[in-house]
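Students often ask why we bother predicting the structure of a whole assembly rather than each chain alone. The short answer is interfaces. A chain on its own may look different once its partners are present, and contacts between molecules only exist in the joint model. In this exercise we take two input lines together and write out one structure for the complete complex. Read the inputs first and try to guess which parts will touch.
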Amino acid sequence: MKNPIQGLHKEFENRIKLGIMSVLMVNDSIDFNELKDILQVTDGNLASHINALEKKEMIAVKKQFVGKKPNTSYSATINGRTAFSEHLNALENLINKT
Amino acid sequence: MRTAESDLKDIKELMERSSRFISLSGLSGVFAGIYALIGAFLAHLYLLPINELERSGNSDTINQLPYMILIAGSVLVFSLITAIWFTTRNAAKKKQKIWDRNSKLMLWNLAIPLFAGGCFVIILLAKGTYDLVAPSMLVFYGLALINGSKYTLNDIRYLGYCEIILGLLAAWFSGNGLLFWSIGFGLLHIVYGAVMYRKYER
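Now the answer. The structure tokens for the assembled complex follow.
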């Protein structure tokens, strides 16, 4: 029998990382402040989780200038989308098993 | 301890909240419906004597267009003001911003078919094809709702379907424009708004 928790990715165990990925799955791209508003977390907290996800290549970061202001936006990579879908499936399997 | 269930619930909620504008208030629908019914009633009162004259064959001198446009315009303006007021209140209650990327996307997507419809109706008026004015308004409004439903409560999609069906019926049974218009913009809005209010705001 297949191990029910096989698809769980430990990268998404943290609540804020889970939140970031959830938002990026349904939005093509989103900037730092929008993400902060939705998740209601502090700058530092959000930044550290974003960095971790970026290092694992789950999300892509795009820096650009909007007028004179720098703007950083994030999107999920194909890699990240696949991994998060697997994670979701695994969570659903867990529920169905019990 | 966190469970898979609570994780999935949070994920679903975040996906919903981050990609849709969920503060659209049902009460704005109810009031828009009431304004539309008042407007339709005024139009009806105004048209009664004109229809009489038409039957006796000397209506050529009466131009009813400015009065009708005034009524329709007032209904629209009052509906928008009320919608903004109730939706702002609802957004504050839900701690959602009223002017964020999702409300912008929603408005933009609503506006495209509405703008096309508006132009189309103006052309119909200019060409004197009055029979098709109410049906066109209903059909284009329905298309706008379906187009905007991706960025707000998905339920407005069903209101959109109803408006389109009603618009097509109105086109087929031409000559009853005002009646179909009252059902589509009056009755359906009230029913829809009341259902939404009960479902999401109480």
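Check your guess against this: The longest helix of chain A spans residues 78-97.
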